[in-house]
Write a structure and sequence with these properties.
- The chain is of the alpha/beta class.
- The protein has a single domain, classed as Ribonuclease H-like superfamily/Ribonuclease H (Nucleotidyltransferase, domain 5, 2-Layer Sandwich).
- 51% of the residues lie in helices and 21% in strands.
- The protein has five helices and five strands.
- The protein has a five-stranded mixed β-sheet with strand order 3-2-1-4-5.
- The radius of gyration is 15 Å and the shape is globular.
Length: 167
């Protein structure tokens, strides 16, 4: 299964395409972040995110897109901007014929680190180890996106095992 993980943000939107091979090895194909210039109108930022994610999907052909679910933010303005970016990411996936899986921050950290309150550094280090990377993905938005993809792969595998047992 090839998954595009997206860490939505209005300054950096992280992305990572990875897959689990037939021998259950996790392989990273690409990761990085879409950097958005400060002071750029939000509409232009959203257009860039849409265009870049659409290009990543076309080039790397994921089977599904995984993103972080809505969380509660103290700052309402920040939450609204994040919601707009999430909407554009979901639109890019949908326009490309892909389903979107959503995971809570707690689920993502639990799946990758084993602890739902792990900090960014712990997530980054575990992503590096799980994918056999020589150095941590940079910026942290890229490692967060890969963590989201890893969460989806682990969750899908668990769901498949439950379905097989219940048959």
């Amino acid at each position: 299964m090839r998954v595009l993980g997206i860490d939505c943000g209005s300054e950096y939107t992280g992305f990572g395409v990875m897959e689990e091979t037939a021998d259950r090895k996790l392989v990273c194909h690409v990761n990085g972040a879409i950097k958005l210039k400060s002071g750029t109108p939000m509409a232009a930022k959203l257009e860039k995110i849409f265009a870049d994610l659409t290009a990543i999907i076309a080039q790397h052909q994921p089977e599904i897109v995984a993103i972080e679910d809505v969380f509660y933010a103290v700052n309402v303005k920040t939450a609204l901007k994040l919601g707009q970016v999430r909407g554009v990411a979901m639109l890019a996936a949908s326009r490309s014929g892909l389903q979107v899986a959503e995971y809570s921050p707690l689920s993502i950290k639990s799946a990758v680190v084993g602890y739902g309150r792990a900090d960014k550094h712990q997530v980054q280090q575990m992503v590096m180890r799980l994918l056999g990377l020589g150095s941590p993905p940079q910026p942290t938005d890229a490692s967060d996106a890969l963590a989201i993809a890893i969460c989806h792969i682990h969750t899908a595998a668990t769901n498949n095992r439950y379905a097989a047992v219940s048959r």
